[in-house]
Task: structure prediction
Amino acid sequence: MSPQDKKKKKRRRKPTGEEIVKSRNRLLAGRDLAFLRIIAVSVLCGLVLTAATVIYIFRFRNPAVTEQSVEFTEQKKLPDAQVAREYLHEGILDGINSAGRGVCEALNARPEEIEISGEEMKTFASIDSVRIADGGTISVSVTAPGLPASDDKYYYLFEEKIWQDELEDGQEPVSRAYKDASLTITADLNRGSADSRLFSRFSVAVRIDGQYRVVSHAKYVENPEALASVSYGGVAHTSKKGLLIDPNRASGSEWDDLGVQYCTYNFPMAHILGPTTNAAYPTINYTYHGKNYQFNGAHIHQYDYLFSILTRKKIDITAILLDDASPSAYPAFTHPSARSGSTAPYYMFNAATPDGVEALGAVATFLANRYSGSDHGRVQNWIVGNEVNARKEWNYMPAGTSLDTFTAAYAKAYRVFYNAIKSVNSAAGVYICLDQQWDRNKSNNPDYDARDLLDLFAADVRACGDIDWGLAFHPYSCPLTQAAFWKANKLVNKTAGTSFVTMDNIGVVTDYLHQEQFLMRNGQVRSVILSEQGYTSTAGQELQAAAFAYAYKIAAANPDIDIFIYSRETDHAVEIAQSLALGLTTTGGGHKRIYDVYKHIDKADGNDVAAFALGIIGISSWP
Result:
């Protein structure tokens, strides 16, 4: 027998009675401790399982819970006895009860899962807002009546470029979030890159049978101003008086003498694009989203000079963006449908192709940056196009283009300009421009009614992400050659169905904009500027001066009109040939009767200077 076996044999000796009692007590104590261990472990496991259940079901409500639960299970792997001592107490039991109640309450509050199909699928969820948040991210707020039944627990966020009509086959989402009745999905803005999402719209989808199915209407970014480093909204003025200025008068004192408060000036694309051969003012190379664009240094210098003078004189500038760029030389700027057959001086801007959106974004960003500081002058407002409802005359698209198609094309181009400009200067105004053809409903009219286009434009913008657009309107006389706009005309009345809007019934337009579907997000009426209207002196300078005085008094008395721009400072030869001698001065610089009335109309002696006009108009006092 080995020594080890001898030792084992000795240990198996018969125990004494006392030892038996002690052994029995140890056994009982061990059983009690084991029982307690089982209870403790069971309780702890139950708590962990309860927490895990809550986390599994509601993880998407608070992702931080998942991280905390992992930390708990990783750090609390302790011996059973220690578990019992440290974690089996009244607080744990209360926690279990509380967790159980929370599970029941959460289950009861869980949104209903809904089977969706057909047309209802496209609008099941609602994108309430798409906003730029701190840190350069896009935050998309989504609500729905319940949880759409799908392959998994996610909503998927899709980006649609502004030129897309729908998602492309095989397109992948840019982000995702757990489904809920109310949630927020975020994505990177990619500012400054070729993949920038500043002009994109966003929709949400779910996976059904392995395919992404869009369940919301798409919306664009609604607050591009969140990116702006400048906030210039003009200077404080004492009146609404403005003028289409003559740049040849920049070096004189005429603007000071007239007391001009506001002005308009054109930015034709053909004038500012491309290289220059002037060595003194070399080509300006501008990089936008990694691509180089060229601006004519000599022509840009002319704008710098003019705008600097206007800014020093505290005359706020409204710049008008016009596409007269040759489709052959600069095809990207012009809508593909408008590149041939045009009889108009200006074309529809192009937001229908990737290169078009980039080109418009580049021009808008360049100009907004250059004219938002004091170095080159400051532009307060921007107008996108001229009288855009005049398809044939001023904003060309081919004949036969439906109003829906035309408006959608313009709305996209407008939004590119708006987002680019507002991302530079948060206080800038950006306007759509319409002429006086309000509601003609004439079958052979080659143009569109301003009212119809306004209705569709406003509806499009609101549905796709509301922004603070404004209206630049041109209430010329009907006909244009008649200065006495107050005379009775069967085409002009004071109802919303009037064929034309002149200064006699301009209230039709401002009242129309009080309707809920036109109000801004804060409930206010949108900004209205009368950016072009004038009266000919062909029938006499007294009549012209009286017409201006009456028109200005009407605008000054209307609280919804912000600016009144008279067209123009100096007679223009082309217009004179059409019996439209609209200037305050002749082509030779001589002052007409209207010059003195314009100068004093907003001064303390304005009524006295314009008193002669009351008899001409046939009224006893100003409105």
